[in-house]
Amino acid sequence: MTRRRNKKTSLNKRVLYRIVALAIFSGIVIASLFYAVEMMHIKSKAEDVLTEFMEQPEIKKPDNAPEVYYIGTEAAGEEYLLDAEKELLEYYRTNKEKIPLKHIEHFRRQQIDIYFAAVNANEIYEDESGEALLYTDVSFTTGTVRTATYILIGVVAGLSFLLYGASRYTIRILDGKDKSMKDFFSNASHELKTPLMGIRGYVDGWRDGIVPQEKACAVIDKEIDRMTGLINDILEFSKLDGGIAEPHMEENDVREILYDAVQVIEAQARKDHIEISLELPEPMLCLCDEEMLFSVFSNILTNSIRYARKEISIQAEFKKSPSHIKIIFSNDGKPISKEDAAHMFERFYKGAGGQSGIGMALSLEYIKLHGGDISVFTEKERTIFQVCIKKI
């Protein structure tokens, strides 16, 4: 079982990490392509300028090509050359035999980036022997491209770091949802099997003549109601989890919804000799979904009847808060433990009483949709459920 869970978790990691790796790779490819294309463009432009310059009948510096310069290769006047020109001249003298005339070469050293071609010096300088070097200095342009590429890589690295962090957060959420979904269906299947097993047992007992028909039918009817309620709760939770459960807000008197919920549970209360008392102000108007609030109140009352000894009281505070209605359900049963109170609104939590389900968890979600909250605690040896909902 553990191996399967780890495999599922690793699947989320593999998928998201591959997405991150693909994003990083794409960013590097884009930065590399940007650098390569820009450098090719610079090279092409430099070669075109030098070629056009050399193809003129009389090679001289035209007005439309200010980026082309020339220097002689003889020692005379060398002290007036720029550092880049000195570096270029030294390179040419060292590799002169390998460089044919009028062939465009690329010279790069540290921050110097030059395209040049050697020509006969007498084509530029009269009565000059040897060669002259035509060149265009693209150091500034290529430096700008490199800087832009480094910035682009830095941006990609920063975004990749953020994406990696986001992916780890997403993995934790996905793994948590996977576990929650697995636990939910595991618990739901267990809860559904319990009434089915009870039904099957009493059907077999009735068929074999062990259990009277009346008793079997009563138990089967009770288990069917229990299973129907659980299925309805599961369906409602699926709507909530899918984001399609929207409260239909209308103006309602909360007292009327409470009266309806009490009326439904009253027969069971009489059977168990439990008195239900209500102290409600008039009126208690709020914008709410009547069906959702009815479900909340019914779940709380059902839970209260299960543990109450003799009495359940329902009170409301309407005027104390300018923005909220506070409804308090209390019963005189055994006070709820701190552990049970802390987990009361978790799905399928099984408390000390052995009961489990999703009714209270569903109630909390309904109240949250109304911008309110539910809490449970012990006060004066009584278990208190407190519901807060917004007024109109």
Automatic annotation (TrEMBL):
UniProt xrefs under SUPFAM superfamilies: ATPase domain of HSP90 chaperone/DNA topoisomerase II/histidine kinase, Homodimeric domain of signal transducing histidine kinase
GO molecular-function terms, A-Z: phosphorelay sensor kinase activity
Membrane-spanning intervals of the chain: 15-37, 148-171
Gene3D superfamilies to which the protein is assigned, alphabetical: 1.10.287.130, Histidine kinase-like ATPase, C-terminal domain (3.30.565.10)
Domain (Histidine kinase) ranges: 187-392
EC class of the enzyme, as a word: transferase
EC number(s) recorded for this UniProt protein: 2.7.13.3
Keyword field: Kinase, Membrane, Phosphoprotein, Transferase, Transmembrane, Transmembrane helix, Two-component regulatory system
Alphabetical list of Pfam families matching this protein: HATPase_c, HisKA
Reaction it catalyzes: ATP + protein L-histidine = ADP + protein N-phospho-L-histidine
Keyword Transferase: yes
InterPro entries: HATPase_C_sf (IPR036890), HATPase_dom (IPR003594), His_kinase_dom (IPR005467), HisK_dim/P_dom (IPR003661), HisK_dim/P_sf (IPR036097)
Highest taxon in the source lineage: Bacteria
Name of this protein: histidine kinase
Organism, as annotated: Candidatus Blautia faecavium
